[in-house]
């Protein structure tokens, strides 16, 4: 079971301590965390927030209860040396009236139970800091204060600016791992849900101003059904912001995704959105510019309004 949360600031973090801590946490029943104060001025925000997530495991009649702290470093997206150019990407593919996809297109090398794959929380990043920062800045510039936001396929971080916790009306999330969601201190509420098994969203019609999905649409085997749900729960004039890089778990990504390049990924997402009932989307390359570095992770946005 998972109960309430408490995260404390860590004075320092080392790779060896982090690995030793995470390697020790196999079974646990309690995860605790609380958020640090958020500065309203992005120029005064720290670049990193280092925290200790306390986990209790083996807490049953047959276990040997132990508590272990996992040291995590959160990227705030602020106070970095990066710059954030944004370039529109033309979406030119004409999709047929009916979706041309076959069951084979959504085959995955690992067809095992996703819930088993995601059982242990991964309190790590799957894209690099410049990619996270570019997405954070995009959210700051494109999501209005007072919005109700839903983050699907979410985890222990949603990459929103620090001030969103205070100036948004609501931040909800669905994701595979309830422990990761519990550690996400920006959320108002969350529900763990395997969208590949149950491609529905547990929210009323016209509930949200914005729905986000971060580097996860490549894992969905029923993306059109899920995006139809996204359209249902969006308010009129609400928008979807789907972000994508070039990183993934290859064993869990669908086969046609693995056979495409970055540009084709954007066209595919646009196709999904059109078959879900949306109009044509807009795409952007928002890859951060890093001084002295040419090969940081790319970041792309596909966005459309209901």
SSE inventory with pairings:
Elements: E1 7-9, H1 15-24, E2 30-32, E3 48-57, E4 66-75, E5 87-89, H2 114-117, H3 129-142, E6 148-152, H4 164-167, E7 170-175, H5 178-182, E8 189-192, E9 208-214, H6 223-233, E10 234-244, H7 255-258, H8 262-275, E11 282-285, E12 300-305
Parallel strand pairs: 6-7, 6-9, 7-8, 9-10
Antiparallel strand pairs: 1-3, 2-3, 3-4, 5-11, 10-12, 11-12
Description of the structure:
The protein is an alpha/beta fold and 306 residues long. The chain is 22% helix and 24% strand. It is built from 8 helices and 12 strands.
What are the salient characteristics of this protein?
12 strands; four-stranded antiparallel beta sheet; 306 residues; single chain; globular; 24% strand; eight-stranded mixed beta sheet; 8 helices; alpha/beta; disordered N terminus
Compact description:
This protein has helices at 15-24, 114-117, 129-142, 164-167, 178-182, 223-233, 255-258, 262-275, and strands at 7-9, 30-32, 48-57, 66-75, 87-89, 148-152, 170-175, 189-192, 208-214, 234-244, 282-285, 300-305. It is an alpha/beta fold. It starts with 6 loop residues before the first strand and ends with a strand.
């Amino acid at each position: 079971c998972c109960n309430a949360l408490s995260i404390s600031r860590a004075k320092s973090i080392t790779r060896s301590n982090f690995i030793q801590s995470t390697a020790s946490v196999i079974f646990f029943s309690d995860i605790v965390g609380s958020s640090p104060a958020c500065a309203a001025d992005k120029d005064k925000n720290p670049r990193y927030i280092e925290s200790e997530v306390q986990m209790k495991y083996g807490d049953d009649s047959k276990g040997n209860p132990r508590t272990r702290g996992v040291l995590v470093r959160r990227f705030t997206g602020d106070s970095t040396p990066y710059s954030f150019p944004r370039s529109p990407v033309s979406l030119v593919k004409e999709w047929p009236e009916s979706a041309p996809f076959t069951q084979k297109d959504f085959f995955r090398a690992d067809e095992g139970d996703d819930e088993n794959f995601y059982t242990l929380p991964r309190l790590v990043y799957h894209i690099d800091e410049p990619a996270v920062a570019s997405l954070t800045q995009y959210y700051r510039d494109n999501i209005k204060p007072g919005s109700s936001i839903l983050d699907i396929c979410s985890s222990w971080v949603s990459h929103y600016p620090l001030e969103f916790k205070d100036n948004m009306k609501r931040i909800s999330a669905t994701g595979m791992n309830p422990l990761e969601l519990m550690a996400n201190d920006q959320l108002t509420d969350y529900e763990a849900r395997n969208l590949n098994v149950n491609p529905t969203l547990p929210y009323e019609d016209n509930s949200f101003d914005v729905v986000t999905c971060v580097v996860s649409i490549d894992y969905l085997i029923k993306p059109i059904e899920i995006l139809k749900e996204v359209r249902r729960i969006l308010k009129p004039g609400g928008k979807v912001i789907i972000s994508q890089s070039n990183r993934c778990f290859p064993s869990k990504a669908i086969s046609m995704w693995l056979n495409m390049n970055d540009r084709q990924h954007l066209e595919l997402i646009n196709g999904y959105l059109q078959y879900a009932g949306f109009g044509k989307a807009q795409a952007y390359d928002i890859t951060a510019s890093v001084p002295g570095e040419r090969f940081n992770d790319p970041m792309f946005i596909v966005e459309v309004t209901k």
